[in-house]
Design goal:
This protein has 9 helices and 17 strands. The chain has about 325 residues and is α+β, with helices and mostly antiparallel strands. The radius of gyration is 21 Å and the shape is globular.
């Protein structure tokens, strides 16, 4: 009998403490979209079987994923027992399984995460301005190839790592004058670490733009110093705004070129045009919502996942006045 009762559901792959995932899953449940969640820091007792028919059994819950959403799922958060080599295999196996579950799903969010180099190349190909930059293992020497007064140093992957389960070390972008560049990529990074060195661009405005499905929501970010977002977040002012048409068009073009169902895009407005910085396929949004007093991105993400699920499950798209709107889903409802 159990074989006949496997349903269709959203699979959410993240970690404990992911507030965005928790809020989204709760709202999806309220509107009748089933969600099963797997946390990278909660794998110890998980029993998982993926059969040849595509049905996934997680701790006795049998379902076929309609949408697999990769958020902050990193097997570095797991702390299995065993030999050093065996622990590496364990983490690698979970990482590969997560990627392959996403690849096998009718729809996936966050699985295609183009890195900085690909993002910059795509932006240039679309005619969107990006800061001049290069990848180097020696920023001080490479600065000779990229004359500027100030620079931004970025790691090539996410801005944090997990050297041991539960402990995050952050390597945030750094704004440095030329005379402060040295042969390393920054505090804590070994010499020879490849980093992105790019010119610092003076600008009038900074925008964070969220693309979720066919929806776009923008926030204007005002701060005194580039590093205030990380060092003095209480001093940062965030407003929900209608993005300039050129910014919105650039974000939509980049999202379309990358094929992402969700992305957080960072832009500057400088010299009368948008300057694309980067896109984060797993970017959080609740901090921006809290600062601006809105829940627009939460609602957009819920609608996007809902529509992908219903499409994969064979259901019709909802009417314009949806149950989600009726419920007043989210903090603003």
């Amino acid at each position: 009998m159990a074989e006949a009762t496997a349903g269709r559901a959203v699979l959410l792959l993240t970690r404990r403490g992911d507030g965005e995932a928790t809020a989204t899953a709760a709202l999806l449940h309220r509107i009748g979209v089933p969600v099963h969640r797997l946390d990278a820091d909660g794998l110890a007792e998980v029993r998982a079987v993926r059969g040849p028919d595509g049905v996934l059994d997680l701790d006795g819950h049998r379902f076929t994923p309609t949408v697999t959403w990769l958020r902050h799922f990193s097997a570095r958060a797991a702390s299995p027992a065993g030999t050093p080599g065996g622990r590496l295999v364990y983490r690698d196996a979970w990482s590969v399984l997560a990627q392959q579950l996403a690849a096998a799903s009718p729809a996936a969010i966050g699985a295609d995460d183009p890195g900085l180099l690909v993002q910059r190349d795509r932006a240039r190909a679309l005619g969107v301005r990006v800061p001049r930059g290069l990848v180097t293992t020696d920023p001080a020497r490479a600065a000779g190839l990229l004359p500027a007064r100030r620079y931004v140093l970025k790691v090539l992957d996410r801005h944090y790592v997990e050297p041991e389960p539960g402990r995050l070390d952050w390597f945030l972008p750094r704004v440095l004058d030329r005379d402060r560049l040295d042969g390393s990529g920054g505090a804590g990074l070994p010499r020879g670490t490849p980093v992105l060195l790019q010119e610092y661009i003076g600008h009038d405005t900074e925008y964070r733009v969220y693309c979720a499905g066919d929806e776009l929501h923008a926030f204007e970010v005002a701060k005194e110093r580039p590093e205030d977002v990380w060092e003095r977040p209480d001093e940062v002012v965030v407003r929900q705004v209608r993005a300039p048409e050129a910014v919105a068009a650039a974000a939509r073009a980049l999202a379309g070129e990358s094929g992402v169902g969700y992305g957080a895009f960072d832009f500057l407005w400088a010299g009368g045009e948008p300057v694309f910085l980067e896109m984060n396929a797993h970017g959080d949004w609740q901090w921006f919502e809290r600062k601006a007093g809105t829940d627009a991105v939460t609602r957009a993400v819920v609608r996007t996942v809902r529509d992908l699920h219903r499409s994969a499950a064979g259901g019709a798209r909802p009417e314009p006045v949806s149950l989600l709107a009726f419920l007043g889903a989210g903090r603003g409802g």
